[in-house]
């Protein structure tokens, strides 16, 4: 089974870059050597415990995008040329199907309670909605922590929901908790990432003195209900926004600029004179 390789851009400062790898490098020396080999690199440090890479460089000699690309290629090569996803540490966690199921169950509970608030069946339905909401919030908190390595303040809504379950005010507590936790995600840009695929050079590529061929593209959005619900709010927001791009969009455009400035052939990994054919799919 191929590993799911990810590179997270932790932060970018002028002349300084920190990225985090999802898997440890099996050959750490290859990574630092590949990065150091390019002119303009002052400092490279890889920490195996945190799987973080810190690079200090001169932006006049090498761009941030080239460093990220070279790190991605080294990562892919270390794992037998598996694809690598590049994403931001600040990306938004999209609504999952579980949170949407909880929202729909709350709507159904409110509808039935308008019909008859005294029915035991509807009281049980309220409890099911409350437990579903609790499960959805716990799952969302876990996914958010896994992505960002920290808890969002919305986690405190769990305390209110648990108290509501204990006091028997289930439907009101679950509804308020759902909105406190998930409402903001309906108007956020859905999470995105770039995919870097590396293959050994074929005969066409070798004619250009290239050792690898790399394709960079945007990852296709998953067809979940949550992503569909992002469409209408985003159409409304785009009416008032002149700029609506994520870090991934900006990075893809900058990689395209790198490809154009190098005539689609960037410096090689082990040997700078043996190039890498860079293709960008927008």
Tell me what you see in this structure.
The chain has 282 residues and is of the alpha+beta class. It has two domains: 179 residues, 2-Layer Sandwich (Alpha-Beta Plaits); 90 residues. It is 45% helix and 21% strand. The chain is built from ten helices and nine strands. It has a nine-stranded mixed β-sheet with strand order 3-4-2-1-5-6-7-9-8, covered by helices on one side. The longest helix is centred in the middle third of the chain and has 29 residues. 30% of the residues are buried.
Question: How would you concisely characterize the structure shown here?
Answer:
With 282 residues, this protein is an alpha+beta fold. It is built from 10 helices and 9 strands.
What is this structure's SSE topology?
Layout (H helix, E strand, L loop, with lengths): L4 E9 L2 E6 L6 H9 L4 E7 L4 E6 L6 H15 L5 E5 L8 H19 L4 H29 L8 H11 L2 H13 L11 E7 L2 H4 L3 E9 L6 H5 L1 H8 L8 H15 L3 E2 L8 E7 L1
Parallel strand pairs: 1-5, 7-9
Antiparallel strand pairs: 1-2, 2-4, 3-4, 5-6, 6-7, 8-9
- Tell the overall outline: elongated
Helix content: 40-55%
The total count of helices amounts to 10
**CATH class term of the largest domain:** Alpha Beta
Mean pLDDT equals 78
Number of strands: 9
Instruction: Order the strands across the largest sheet as they lie in space.
Output: 3-4-2-1-5-6-7-9-8
Q: Output the structural class.
A: alpha+beta
């Amino acid at each position: 089974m191929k590993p799911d390789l990810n590179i997270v851009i932790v932060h970018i400062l002028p002349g300084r870059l920190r990225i985090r790898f999802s898997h440890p490098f099996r050959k750490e020396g290859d990574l630092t050597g590949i990065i150091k080999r390019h002119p303009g690199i002052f400092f490279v440090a890889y920490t195996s415990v945190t799987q973080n890479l810190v690079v200090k460089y001169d932006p006049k000699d090498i761009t941030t995008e080239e460093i990220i690309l070279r790190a991605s290629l080294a990562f892919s090569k270390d794992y037998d040329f598996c694809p690598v996803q590049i994403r931001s540490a600040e990306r938004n966690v999209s609504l999952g199907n579980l949170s949407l199921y909880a929202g729909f169950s709350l709507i159904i509970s409110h509808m039935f309670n308008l019909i008859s608030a005294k029915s035991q069946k509807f009281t049980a339905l309220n409890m099911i909605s409350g437990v579903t909401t609790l499960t959805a919030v716990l799952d969302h908190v876990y996914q958010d922590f896994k992505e960002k390595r920290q808890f969002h303040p919305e986690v405190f809504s769990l305390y209110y929901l648990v108290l509501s379950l204990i006091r028997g005010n289930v439907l009101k507590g679950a509804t308020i908790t759902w909105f406190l936790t998930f409402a903001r995600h309906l108007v956020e840009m859905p999470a995105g990432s770039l995919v870097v695929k590396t293959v050994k050079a074929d005969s066409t590529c070798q004619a250009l003195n290239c050792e690898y061929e790399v394709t960079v593209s945007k990852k296709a959005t998953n067809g979940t209900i949550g992503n569909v619900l992002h469409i209408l709010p985003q159409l409304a927001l785009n009416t008032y926004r002149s700029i609506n791009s994520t870090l991934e969009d900006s990075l893809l455009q900058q990689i395209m600029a790198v490809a154009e400035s190098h005539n689609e052939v960037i410096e090689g990994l082990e040997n700078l004179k043996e190039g890498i054919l860079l293709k960008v799919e927008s």
